[in-house]
Amino acid sequence: MRRIVYLGGLGRDEDVLSKHLQSRHDVGRLLASTGVEVVELRAGVIIGSGSASFEMLRYLVEVLAGHGDASLGRNQVPADRHRRHR
Questions:
Q1: Which secondary-structure segment (H or E) carries 40?
Q2: Which of 21, 59, 78, 83 could form a cystine bridge with 9, CB 3.0-4.6 A?
Q3: Are 16 and 25 within 8 A, CB to CB?
Q4: Within 10 A of 4 (CB to CB), how many other CB atoms are there?
């Protein structure tokens, strides 16, 4: 095995995390200790077609697309919110 790609959970190692997220971080550290190259991706939510989250998001997009409020398309995130977190 040359590389492990592990889908972990959000948060920094020094943060106070829930039991679930702490477990995800522990697994990432355990895998990294094996000597095999590890790429750890920390994702918040992953949704796929057919999941309840995906269908809810699809419904909202369809409903809001017909809403006709042009201001919805002008909302922007302030530039300082785009910084990278390590």
A1: strand 37-43
A2: 21
A3: no
A4: 14
Q: In the prediction, which pLDDT does 86 show? A: 43
pLDDT at position 38 is: 94
Domain count, the chain: 1
Contacts of 26-33 with C-beta under 8 Å, sequence gap 24+, read: 31/4, 31/6
10 and 42 Cβ atoms separated by less than 8 Å: yes
Could you say which residues of the chain have pLDDT below 70? 66-86
Can you give the residue range of the structural domain that contains 41?
Answer: 3-72
- Closest Cα to residue 12, out of 26, 30, 2, 25? 25
